[in-house]
From TrEMBL:
Name of the protein in its database record: CGNR zinc finger domain-containing protein
Listed Gene3D superfamilies: Jann2411-like domain
Residues in Zinc finger CGNR domain copies: 130-172
SUPFAM superfamilies to which the protein is assigned, alphabetical: Jann2411-like
Coiled-coil region list: none
Amino acid sequence: MDLTSYAELAVLLINSPDRLTGLEGLRALLEEGGRYRPGCRITRSDLEALRDLREELMIVFETAEAGDEEAVVDRLNSLLIHHPVQPQISGHDGERWHLHLTEGGRMADQYAVGAVMGLATMITDLGVDRLGLCQAPPCRRAYLDTSSNRSRRYCSERCASRANVAAYRARQKVGQ
Ligand SMILES: [Zn+2]
Ligand SMILES: [Zn+2]
């Protein structure tokens, strides 16, 4: 089980506030994250729990951006206590036996366990500075920097080129 890939669940949640307005949106978000199984029950309480989790995760990324590693670790440790891993071996949909981080609880609880364990694994394997927020204003989407030289600054190619154009224009102005 590649736990760092679970960190993508945190990124997906942070970057999808527009999906957290109703149950249809939530279902789409879960499908995008590969977390939706037909027939699984999602309710308004999942929606509220994931909205809260989104705010907590956003603070983790903002704290990482500010370079306060101790505070990032404190926050993730407290999230790990609130969303404990309870691993279970599972087999479903014709898949081989594999581990689930947790089975019980609401859909939102299972999502939270994955997202938080993913971030915890990410920072312990690769470093706190791997959690980033896009530097092309006004975008503040989250990303995971998996580049070998830790050089990523933007959430997407689109934001990177927008920032390049803005920087170019700023230089032109200085030159005038
Ligand atoms: Zn499974
Ligand atoms: Zn961006």
